[in-house]
Design a protein that fits this description.
The complex is a heterodimer of chains A (769) and B (71).
Chain A (H helix, E strand, L loop, with lengths): L1 H28 L1 E9 L10 E4 L5 E3 L5 E6 L4 E7 L6 E6 H6 L8 E5 L9 E2 L6 E2 L7 E5 H4 L7 H5 L5 E6 L3 E6 L2 E2 L3 E5 L2 E3 L17 E8 L3 H4 L6 E7 L7 E11 L4 E11 L3 E12 L9 E2 L4 E14 L2 E15 L15 E2 L10 E17 L2 E17 L8 E17 L4 E16 L11 E16 L2 E16 L10 E16 L3 E12 L3 H5 L1 E4 L4 E4 L7 E13 L3 E25 L2 E23 L7 E14 L12 E12 L3 E13 L15 E13 L3 E9 L24 E13 L6
Parallel strand pairs in A: 1-7, 14-17, 34-37
Antiparallel strand pairs in A: 1-4, 2-3, 2-5, 5-6, 8-9, 10-16, 11-12, 12-13, 14-15, 16-17, 18-19, 18-43, 19-20, 20-22, 21-24, 22-23, 23-25, 25-26, 26-27, 27-28, 28-29, 29-30, 30-31, 31-32, 32-35, 33-34, 35-36, 36-37, 37-38, 38-39, 39-40, 40-41, 41-42, 42-43
Chain B lengths: L1 H19 L5 E8 L2 E9 H10 L1 E4 L2 E6 L4
Antiparallel strand pairs in B: 1-2, 1-4, 3-4
Classes of the chains: A mainly beta (769), B alpha+beta (71).
């Protein structure tokens, strides 16, 4: 017995010694990255600058002396992104060898000098496959913080995105909104959430986006084909959503927001809690939105335009020596009414307008449940970076058309996906990214649904790619090759059509260059993309109630192939930035819905057809004027122009008209306890659209004026308020891309809103010392 | 702050799941007869499901299609 006790004591001692050694080693292994952020002109410290290690996502905020500190196991080669208000952002590439060579930036004694600048253009992009400074990317990536897009509050994320040049929204009331990039939408636009592809039956024009703005920090838009980076389907472009950054190291934050909109007599409440210590970071948030039928300019209400949305979001990140892991989950549930329901054969638009504003759920209505789960791992070894992302998404769409207890449509789409990348940086400024991407999709119809829009089917995608980047002086070059293959199999006969098995494959390539100096950035890029026909296009043979038509597919459709030339020119002055971005995109074998002269049960019959080629061309432009003599004034304008040319007239529908926006922002900072912060006025001119498809109606031009006023209450805890008005003049208009155009339902009238924001930040208790 | 965050999280989780799991909903049902809406009253839960599964209402004058949604 005594021997046994002695043996156990020895074991315990060894275990304790091991733990002490491990902890000691961990402490020793931790590296300190500290420094100061200073103004280049005055040499004075910059307080509240944000310093982020791009590879791990760790952030630190500089104190009053400009000092910042990281203590941990960060990789040997890092990109340090330093940003501060009214200063130009800076990205430092730090290696241990540079430390040894005694170059400008020394780990542990880092001094970062930021130039004062009114206009910041040097953001980092992540959607280009790796962390790249925006002006070094060979194609223009529109990077927007969500907070900037919400200068005037938006009911839906799609509405916020439509403020970006070249991006529009196709909506079905307030509850359903889909992004349109350079005239292409639905399945031709790929959306990614932190690098994970989102799949949510986006082929249907009446199916929503499945994402809410809670916890989203920024969005990047790649316009045009991007198959090299993201595989099949990205013909129109890519939307890349990135989570908000975690709280700065050793701190916690809580964000509470509530917005009330008088037009829908509804609103949203949001909460986001973040906590970060040296190695582990997490965020947890949620939101709930509830809106009644929206009010029309004629004071009536759009019947059954009500919707509600519940969102839950969680993310956890932890890092070890030369590695970082991200585990992310988000869920959203949407109930959206579908206006335009009638049993009458002759439609009277007024019957869809009500004198009473209702909120109670009725039919027809759509219910969406989306689950997004991803696990991303990155390893950093000398000049190599390995990353593996595994994800699982689940989308459940239930549509109630005629009965409130028996669904008309019930579909469940499961998507399992992977992405593996190896990035190697050579010593001669050459970087190469090699990778594999794939996904396995299963679409199953629910047993309760009375109709089927799609057959039960599964598909398997795999792609292999290699991207090469080379930097020389002020020039950056990028080129790459990719090969994708998709296997599609339907597992049952579908409305008279036998089950099919198809395999689609295509090579893709992209090549481009960027030149950038203090005054000018010039980019040019040629890229290709492909899209395999969706099973809805191959096998449709039935009613699509949401789109109010009977659709007939074609099992012999060929894949679409796109080639785009994109050029952008940015002229940068101290007070003015001007961007011009012309493009031309040719799509071969373009698939479209052609109306026929027949109808079934009073719904028009549409056939899926292909055109040999379609040209999309036009330009996006923008400017930002921030004069030195009026330091608090910002004047911004954007212009979007698109034309479509086909060998057959009137075959492409829903082409966005030209749009011009102008916004004026004035920072006031008046008052002490109760501070008036900012006034923002925004004008939108949407041109008419006369170029339409068969049976598609033209749309007249319209213009809107929106405004907001921001305040701050400097109490014990600062509270931000914003009051605003959208569509100030209560203009009656029907957007050309509105799905309610076919029932002549105008868009919402005047909408006054009030927003209250509470932001709490504090250091963690055990770190205060 | 942690307490506020915890309470807020719990509130939102309850709201999310209660909004997506409400099953025993009620609806006013009616049928159309000679251009008139004839109210059948409010039906809930299994009763509502049975009425919709049947899909019709029969009286001495005939059989009519039942609707349980607003117009």
């Amino acid at each position: 017995m005594g021997v046994l006790i002695s043996f156990r004591s020895e074991l315990q001692m060894k275990f304790i010694a091991f733990i002490i050694a491990f902890v000691a080693f961990s402490v020793v292994a931790q590296k300190e990255l500290s420094g100061f952020v200073k103004s280049k002109m005055t040499n004075l410290p910059i307080a509240h600058a944000r310093i982020q290690i791009e590879e791990t996502g760790e952030t630190s905020i500089s104190d009053e002396t400009g000092a910042f500190l990281f203590l941990g196991n960060y990789p040997k080669m890092i990109h340090l992104h330093v940003s501060a208000m009214d200063y130009e952002s800076k990205v430092l590439f730090l290696t241990e060898s540079e430390q040894a060579l005694g170059r400008q930036y020394l780990i542990g004694k880092l001094e970062v000098y930021l130039s004062e600048r009114h206009l910041d253009l040097e953001d980092i992009t992540v959607s280009t496959g790796t962390n790249v400074q925006k002006n070094k990317s060979p194609f223009l990536v529109e990077t927007r913080k969500l907070s900037d897009l919400n200068g005037i509050s938006n009911l839906q994320l799609g509405e916020a995105l439509a403020k970006i040049p070249g991006v529009y929204q196709s909506s079905l009331g307030n509850g359903i909104s889909k992004p349109v990039i350079r005239g292409l939408q639905g399945i031709r636009v790929v959306s990614l959430l932190n690098g994970m592809r989102m799949e949510g039956q986006q082929w249907g024009g009446d199916h929503g986006m499945g994402i809410s703005e809670i916890g989203i920090g920024s969005v990047e838009v790649i316009k045009g084909p991007a198959s090299l980076l993201y595989g099949a389907d990205a013909l129109g472009g890519v939307l890349y959503y990135s989570d908000e950054t975690y709280a700065p190291v050793n701190s916690q934050s809580l964000k509470l927001q509530s917005v009330y909109y008088n037009n829908t007599n509804g609103g949203v409440v949001r909460m986001l809690y973040k906590q970060s210590n040296q190695k582990v970071r997490f965020l947890l948030g949620g939101s709930y939105a509830n809106h009644a039928d929206f009010k029309l300019p004629n004071q009536k209400f759009a019947q059954n335009s009500r919707f509600n949305e519940s969102v839950l979001k969680a993310a956890l990140s932890w890092n070890g020596k030369n590695k970082v892991h991200h585990l992310r989950y988000s869920f959203n549930h949407v109930m959206s009414g579908l206006p335009g329901h009638t049993h009458d054969t002759i439609i009277n638009p007024l019957e869809f307008q009500s004198d009473v504003q209702r909120r109670k759920q009725t039919i027809p209505a759509q219910f969406f449940d989306n689950h997004y789960l991803s696990f991303e791992n990155k390893w950093f070894l000398e000049r190599n970076e390995f990353s593996i992302l595994c994800g699982q998404t689940l989308n459940q769409l239930t549509e109630y058309d005629e009965k409130v207890t028996i669904p008309g449509i019930q579909m469940r789409l499961s998507n399992s996906l992977y992405s593996a990348k190896w990035t190697h940086t050579f010593e001669n400024n050459v970087k190469v990214i090699n990778g594999l991407q794939g996904m396995f999709q299963v679409n199953v119809n629910g047993a309760e649904g009375t109709e089927k829009l799609l057959p039960d089917a599964y598909s398997f995608d795999n792609g292999v790619f290699s991207i090469w980047m080379y930097e020389k002086d002020r020039w950056n070059f990028q080129g790459g090759l990719r090969y994708d293959i998709r296997y599609l199999k339907t597992v049952e006969d579908f409305i008279g059509s036998p089950a099919i098995t198809r395999t689609f494959a295509s090579p893709n390539a992209s090549i481009g260059a960027a030149y950038s100096d203090e005054k000018i950035t010039f980019r040019t890029n040629v890229s290709t993309g492909y899209r395999a026909p969706h099973s809805s296009e191959l096998l449709a043979n039935g009613f699509h109630h949401g789109a109010l038509r009977f659709e007939i597919g074609d099992a012999y459709l060929r894949p679409e192939k796109a080639s785009q030339l994109d050029v952008s020119l940015e002229l940068k002055g101290d007070h003015l930035v001007f961007v011009l971005n012309p493009f031309i995109n040719k799509i071969n074998h373009f698939i479209f819905l052609q109306p026929s002269d027949s109808s079934i049960d009073n719904l028009p019959v549409f056939l899926y057809k292909q055109l040999n080629h379609v040209w999309f061309y036009g330009s996006d432009a923008g400017f930002h004027y921030h004069p030195h003599f009026a330091h608090d004034l910002h004047l911004e304008g954007t212009f979007s122009y698109l034309q479509v040319s086909t060998q057959s007239d009137s075959s492409i529908s829903m082409i966005p008209p030209s749009r011009f926006t102008l916004s004026l922002r004035y920072q006031i900072d008046f008052g002490n306890k109760f501070q008036v912060k900012e006034v923002l006025v925004q004008h939108t001119y949407m041109n008419g659209q006369g170029k339409v498809a068969f049976y598609e109606s033209t749309s007249p031009a319209y213009q809107l004026l929106d405004a907001s006023l921001s305040f701050k209450w400097n109490g014990k805890t600062a509270i931000d308020f914003q009051v605003g008005c959208k569509n100030i003049f209560n203009t009656s208009y029907i957007d050309h891309l509105s799905r309610l155009k076919n029932i002549q339902m105008p868009s919402p009238g005047r909408n006054i809103y009030l927003s209250i924001n509470l932001n709490l930040n504090q250091p963690l208790k055990n770190q205060k010392s | 702050m942690k307490n506020v965050a915890f309470l807020g999280s719990m509130t939102i989780i309850v709201m999310v799941f209660s909004s997506s799991c409400s099953k025993n909903k009620c609806h006013d049902c009616h049928y159309d007869k000679a251009g008139m809406e004839i109210e059948l009253g409010e039906y809930c839960g299994d009763e509502l499901k049975q009425l919709e599964a049947l899909g019709t209402f029969t009286d001495s004058t005939g059989t009519y299609t039942v609707h349980c949604h607003e117009h």
